[in-house]
TrEMBL record:
UniProt source species: Marinomonas vulgaris
Protein name: Heme-binding protein
SUPFAM superfamilies from the UniProt entry: GlcG-like
InterPro entries: GlcG_carb_metab_protein, PduO/GlcC-like, PduO/GlcC-like_sf
Top-level taxon: Bacteria
Coiled coil start-end: none
Pfam families linked: HbpS-like
């Protein structure tokens, strides 16, 4: 008999909220204001938070970064190098409302299985990446599987 279903793991809402807090704590340390979005493997929002004084558009950009990372199981910034010489594909992907190649979106994997993704926006691209990385470091022991 062939298998017709699969079991998927997902990040708990509690952990998603903890990731938001860890990202904001790091942002406070480096004195920036960010928006954070954590989505499940299907791209649905598990948790989000917007720091006071974060740019208004950063909320939706953080969500797009998280969805991009979840969709392809790659950091959102990875698309900059992957598509640097493939303009037609870049243009096509840019027409997708939930895609971005701006850094700050990271997939969350356990044992190479996508369980969620995080997106950060509001600071410089590198600071957004650093905030997302700091959040993932807060649960690093679990991510090792």
């Amino acid at each position: 008999m062939s298998i017709i279903t699969t079991t998927k793991h997902t990040l708990t809402t509690s952990t998603a909220l903890s990731l938001c807090q860890a990202a904001m704590d790091y942002a406070e340390r480096i004195e920036v204001a960010i928006c954070v979005s954590v989505v499940c493997a299907s791209g649905r929002t598990l948790a989000c938070a917007n720091m006071n004084k974060a740019p208004i558009l950063s909320h939706s950009i953080a969500n797009r970064k998280a969805i991009t990372a979840a969709s392809f199981q790659l950091p959102s910034k990875e698309w900059q190098s992957r598509l640097s010489e493939r303009m037609p594909i870049l243009m096509a992907l840019q027409s997708e409302p939930d895609f971005t190649y701006i850094g700050g979106g990271l997939p969350i994997l356990i044992d190479n299985e996508l369980i969620a993704a995080i997106g950060i926006s509001g600071a410089s691209e590198q600071q957004d990446i650093d905030c997302a990385t700091a959040a993932l470091q807060s649960i690093a022991d679990f991510l090792q599987g």
